[in-house]
Amino acid sequence: MTTTRKTTYREAVREALRDALSRDERVFLMGEDIGRYGGCYAVSLGLLEEFGPERIRDTPLSESAFVGAGIGAALVGMRPVVEIMTVNFSLLALDQIVNNAATMPHMSGGQFSIPLVIRMTTGAGRQLAAQHSHSLEGWYAHIPGLRVVAPATVADARGMLWTALCDPDPVLIFEHASLYNTAATLAEQLAPVDIDHAAVRRAGTDVTVITYGGTLAKSLEAAEEVAAAGVDAEVIDLRALRPLDDATIMDSVRRTHRAVVVDEGWRSGSLAAEISARITEQAFYDLDAPVERVCTVETPIPYAQHLERAALPQQSDIVAAVRRVVAGGG
Amino acid sequence: MSSTETQPEDTPIDHRTDLLRQMLRIRRFEERCAELYSASKIRGFLHLYVGEEAVAVGVTHALSEDDALVSTYRDHGHALARGVPMDAVMAEMYGKATGCSRGRGGSMHLFDVRRRFYGGNAIVAGGLPLSVGLALGDVMSGRRRVSACFFGDGAVAEGEFHECLNLAALWQLPVLFCCENNLYAMGTALNQAQAVTDLALRASSYGLTSWPVDGMDVIAVAEAAQRAVEGVRAGAGPCFLELRTYRFRAHSMYDPDRYRDKEEIERWKQRDPIDGLAADLRAHGELTDDELSGIEEGIKKELDQAVAMAETAPVEPVEDLTRFVYAERPR
């Protein structure tokens, strides 16, 4: 019989880390304030006491050095899990991620693999203003050589890490900071989780809402809202941002003939743009209406609550977009 | 550095003729590359190591096969000294499938996993974090290996340099930082770019053992590197060598070299590491003209063969363009 328990997203990530540290002695954590402080989002709280300072390594504030050190350690057989406080800070390590981790396997003609996992938070919603709130995962999803995932559910937060660690390529895990306190019931016996496929989180027939990460919950709520008005929306959680699971997207769009892409990144040059383009390329003749996008307003994220709220995709924006595509076309 | 402290059977002086041969081998390789570049056989950027041979040869002499090496975009000398086969390096220059990076790296990105050669890195200071990680992985796995990292004086101005020296010293990692100070970051002189030009002094501010070395004297480099490697391997923490050297040629084949005084270049050429060692060996009766000719002949033969092989080697099929972007695995 399967037993279940209530778990928060934060606890799920911590359990995933603990599990990985227990299963494989090559796994170690490295990042700013992950040890004594317990992690800036308290994800790694208690792990220092449990696994010791050799494997739970507090680093100086030097993103480039410790991300690069993670690459180097992965090159000699370790399985580093590097934590960067937020995606904004990852820009200080962009050289290592883009110029080394993403290039070395190919540039060396396949002589090296880099089984490195980099976790970082992303996204807005906590009034942290423009240097702690951006959603830049789309940038990373642009880069060949990287795998990019965004666990939006507690189950994925629990399961994706181990799969990522078993992957021979560098995997970036983006955790939307608004998710840490969300909770769900997990089975005690966990099945392996893939990091290749999108998931249909709500089946529907009238329109496909494609999203990931922090906007999944809003999209699901929007779907429930329009359901009351008789519109049956399918909601796809991308899960993997690179490579994208075109098949799941197209299969859905070919059935619903309408698509709305919800993305907390800015519209210009975004993941939403990429998905929209792919739908146009692969399912144009199945569409009954132009693809809609719901993205963040093109401004640095402001501090004031009402301004931040206005900048971000909200449930009402998603509902409005869904209504437009359903009203449009034939 | 004093040479009296090293073990007689271990002293680099026993291998002086071999050190000369290795330096000559790099010099002749670079000269041939310049010719092949002019003949359009080699394209892209080409940064020649002429003048700096004593650094690569001296440092690699002190490393064991198990140790790792991280390099820069001026990496031919490092690769050859490390033992990457010349034909594989030349084939890479040609962009061939038999190249040491299967034609995907070129001159600036030579790799050889078997020789623990972690590549030419064309981002200044970009290799330092890698070397810190290689060393960290070794320490955590209980291996007593050294990770050596080459970089130029330009790297000392980069943030990654400071982050990495601090981290390596903080965690007492077995990294040998080898700064090839050739006085110019591309076209900008050291004293035009750095407020404090004593680079060994700056490294020491992070708590590393560091000292300057005459990078035009291969014996001095080999001895310094040997002493440094011994300390690093023994767990004394990272070490920084400032290898004072000079490139006799321009930064790259595109560089008209307008920023250097011709007299300065000539002055440094008087200190050619190859001429210097050859003269010394002759003076001590350790090298005859015949022996030198023999060395030159052997190198020429190896070079001719490397070029001939590169000329006829197959190219990577275009269908394989996207191979190795991700690791190949059973699906």
TrEMBL record, chain A:
Keyword Oxidoreductase: yes
CDD domains on file: TPP_PYR_E1-PDHc-beta_like (cd07036)
Pfam families, alphabetized: Transket_pyr, Transketolase_C
Gene3D superfamilies named among the record's database cross-references: 3.40.50.920, 3.40.50.970
Top EC category: oxidoreductase
EC number: 1.2.4.1
Transketolase-like pyrimidine-binding domain location: 7-182
Keyword Oxidoreductase tagged: yes
Requisite cofactors: thiamine diphosphate
MF annotations from Gene Ontology: pyruvate dehydrogenase (acetyl-transferring) activity
Entry keyword set: Oxidoreductase, Pyruvate, Thiamine pyrophosphate
Record-given protein name: Pyruvate dehydrogenase E1 component beta subunit
Species of provenance: Kutzneria viridogrisea
